[in-house]
Amino acid sequence: MSAALLEVRGLTRHFRVRDGFRQHRTAVAVDGIDLALRAGEAYGLVGESGSGKSTVARMILRLLSPTAGTMVFRGQDITALQGEALMRLRENIQIVFQDPHASLNPRKTIFFSVAEPLVIHRGLRGTALQNRVEEVLEIVGLSGNFLYRYPHELSGGQKQRVCIARAVALDPKLLVLDEPTSALDVSVQAQVLEFLRDLKARLDLTYLFISHDLSVVRHLCDRVGVMYLGRIVEEGAVAKVFSAPDHPYTQSLLSAVPLPQAKQPAGRIVLSGDVPSPMAVPSGCAFHPRCPRKIGAVCETERPSLDSRPQGRRVACHL
Amino acid sequence: MSAASHPPVSPWRQALAAWRLRHHSKLRTMRLYAFTFSRSLSSMIGLGLVLLFFFLVLAGPWIVPYPEDATGSVNLDIKLQPPSAEHWFGTDEVGNDIYTRVVLGTQVSFQIGLIVVSIAMILGIPLGIIAGLSGGWLREVIMRVTDVFLSVPGLVLSLAIVAVLGPGILNAIFALALVWWPGYVRLIESKALSLKSEPFVDAARAVGAGMPRIIFFHILPNCVSPIVVKGSMDMGLAILAAASLGFIGLGAQPPHPEWGAMISIGRNYLPDFWWYSTFPGIAIYLTVLGFNLLGDGLRDILDPKTRSR
Amino acid sequence: MAEPAPLLEIRDYSLSISTFDGVLKVLDGINLSIAPGEAVGIVGETGCGKSITVKSVVGLVPSPPARVEAGSVRFDGRDITSADEATIRRIRGQEIAMIFQDPMTYLNPLFTVGRQLRDVIQAKDRLKPQSERRDKRSIQAKAVELLSQVHLPNPERQLDAYPHQLSGGMRQRVLIAMALAGAPKLLIADEPTTALDVTIQAQILDLVKDLVERLGMAVLVISHDLGVVAAICQRIVVMYAGTVVEDATTEALFENPKHPYTRGLLAAIPRLDGSADSLASIAGTIPNLIDPPRGCRFHPRCAEAGETCRQAKPPSLEGAPGHWVACHIYGGGVG
């Protein structure tokens, strides 16, 4: 096994939520997850809303501080980096957000947005800056014509390319992609996905790809981690997990996706009920109230650990 | 690249072309603004009124027929004459030309308005930014103080302040500015609070932008529209408030040509010498109306919700 | 013909909208029909006009700036193309019901679910003669019945809940219950599950399918997701840049897609089983509708386009029974 580029141990994040007058409750967004990204891989983190996958991204980016746990990037503990060291980390980990329109400052030109990291970290100015910005835009397949345009004049796909350009301008090692294509149309999504695949090889990147869309993860990622209510319930190689899911949640998740084909497969598992609130995570296995294959009291009382199984898979289930 | 092979193109035109390319998008947006604005009659009336009064501010001393009438000259032989060809708005109780005094009063009013609104912005915007971005106890302190100021009617508070400091134009400005800034804190605080969680601010933080950079490049440029709209509306309101202070004798002192004070004195001569109070009153009315219509029009074009892609 | 008379029939419908930049030719000769009890899906990408077609037909697009340039709309045998506001509103209230992407926007946060549901039932009642109107008790009973029809657990208790106390999936169920209040002949669902999670989406899709079968109403699903449409609909209409490019049964569309755009769209979808090795994307971008391409609106992006495609708008031809394609390749060849 190659050394991990990023290793996350027991990462936890609680939010204090105001509930009524002067009452505070704790929402558990991320609940002690372990994760190791190998250099050069594309790791997909999937889950429904409220599963905590975006919170994980924001913690890795150091936009949000963890309640507990450690994060180690290339052998260095980054959990509490400050100042100069944090700036160096920012050169190496970058992020692309879901909504390309909202992640570009509406009052600034494309040039400004792409130049910003270069100005901050490299101190580039004038012609050198202009050349580098054009070069980066070239990488994402946009011509210099876009330099002085404003975000509202670009299409969704073009805007997402600008966001990717900004993220790769400093040659990062790890790119966190937080639902980068879910705001895009199918044909544009196809372009961006293919482009991301190609970019990863060209720039020698590692991806942490966060998505609720299983097909997209299947297409782009090597390994996948499935999150439910702040915990990873199953992890393994994409092809293995998708063809033979072990955890009942993964099974129902995969089975719930409506397929773009004439005949929907028989025997679909439709889960009843809603995802519980992160403010009231069920005891034991968080999935037990909805689980179609619950085996008994152990599911309600004991939290299953994420155990290793053959073929590099990990599953958190009492089954 | 091709510049060398085409000597006839002057460098000046080249620079212009480059400038137009850089600012093409901005120019287009400006044209869109101008188009939308010009389609609204009330906005255009507002703009017209404001421009007219600004013209009077700048050109006033040169276009009025009797400039010395604003500095306390006395011509008792022509006192309280009705409007005529020589004195368009009539004359007052010491024989001064009311037209002259109303026109020159524009300067006084606009000075007060501009200074009050500027001070309010200078105080309110930074406090609003700090409150919106910091959170915690700092925000609590700023916002609670703001609340205290906002809970007392502005005019009553400024009246009390002037009463303590004594009447006079400077004290009136000071008092009005002191009650005006909390509105800006409120506005900017809520705007900054919502901008803070925008993905583009997160993206800037992720590429390593520090606080000053985030404030000056990401938060402030996106606050400009509401500031401009509120500033325009407040100009009218501040002028009205200054006139109110003048009316009860706490603002500008005679013989300073101030609209509120003029109405106040003219009140004694109503209804027989109606022109004395009427013309300064119309001036106040039109100024406030102009700034309000302009503010409404600006809001219509600057509010992103009404703007299409 | 043995075919039943269509419930909704849109013929050669063209719509334009004037904007600052010019006149957008939003729809260009749309043909669409839905039989009673049929489930039809409209798919297409942003800006293809799938939503506006439906909104315009039921009178939800303000005019001006919109203008119907040509075409006719018949609903249940009546011509409603130029029907007045009151007639349209009556049809929209009683015979056509709509549900939307974001249920929260269509629920008033200040009132309970029960209150809003009862209001809807009463409003529908007002369209009936006095004798058929319900009293308070039966309105309440009807509200409970509607909620249980959409499989909301504990319907009596949910009546006292406020919208914010419900989850996204439950809100969408409440909205569907409201839509069912008037026993509509046609349910229009505009991106009904786009805001929902996969497992909740599956529940709502099951519900809609079940309702169509049980109540025998027709449903028109608008979605960007071919999977969603495939799960509910018997027939799928593919739109591109304000035109209908293909109209076929679900089976025919996936097994034997004809139009190059449909084929491109299908090739662009990542597959859950990993069967798509690399995704084919459609070159170019969607056209500007102020100055749309002459001829076939898809020709600038079409690899198979010829001279005819640049000159003439392709007619919609029935290649196989019930399979309509608007493409020159299938009608006299590409010049």
Largest sheet of chain B: none
Radius of gyration of chain B: 24 Å
Structural class of chain B: mainly alpha
Query: What is the beta-strand fraction of chain B?
Result: under 5%
The overall number of domains of chain B is: 1
Q: Indicate the radius of gyration of chain C in whole angstroms.
A: 21 Å
Overall average residue pLDDT of chain B: 85
Quick one: which chains have the greatest interface?
A: A-C, 45 and 45 residues
Explained architecture:
- The complex is a heterotrimer of chains A (319), B (309) and C (335).
- Chain A has a single domain (4-315), classed as P-loop containing nucleotide triphosphate hydrolases (Rossmann fold).
- Chain A is built from 10 helices and 12 strands.
- Chain A has helices at 53-60, 83-92, 110-122, 126-139, 156-168, 186-203, 214-220, 238-243, 248-256, 297-301; strands spanning 4-18, 24-38, 42-46, 68-73, 76-77, 93-96, 174-178, 206-211, 223-228, 231-237, 307-309, 313-315.
- Chain A has an 8-stranded mixed sheet with strand order 6-7-8-3-9-10-12-11, with helices on both faces.
- In chain A, helix 5 runs parallel beside helix 6 (186-203).
- The longest helix of chain A is centred in the middle third of the chain and has 18 residues, at 186-203.
- In chain A, 47% of the residues are buried.
- Chain B has 309 residues and is mainly alpha-helical.
- Chain B has one domain (37-307): MetI-like fold (Orthogonal Bundle), CATH 1.10.3720.10.
- Helices cover 71% and strands 0% of the residues of chain B.
- Chain B has helices spanning 11-22, 24-38, 41-63, 98-134, 136-151, 154-165, 169-196, 199-206, 211-219, 224-247, 259-266, 275-302.
- Helix content of chain C is 32%, strand content 23%.
- Chain C has helices spanning 50-57, 85-94, 113-126, 136-149, 155-158, 168-180, 198-215, 226-232, 250-255, 260-267, 307-311; strands at 8-19, 22-34, 39-43, 66-75, 78-79, 96-99, 186-190, 218-223, 235-240, 243-249, 317-320, 323-325.
- In chain C, the strands form 2 sheets. Chain C has an 8-stranded mixed sheet, sandwiched between helices.
- The longest helix of chain C has 18 residues, at 198-215.
- Chains in contact: A-B, A-C, B-C.
- At the A-B interface, helix 2 and helix 3 of A face helix 2, helix 8 and helix 9 of B.
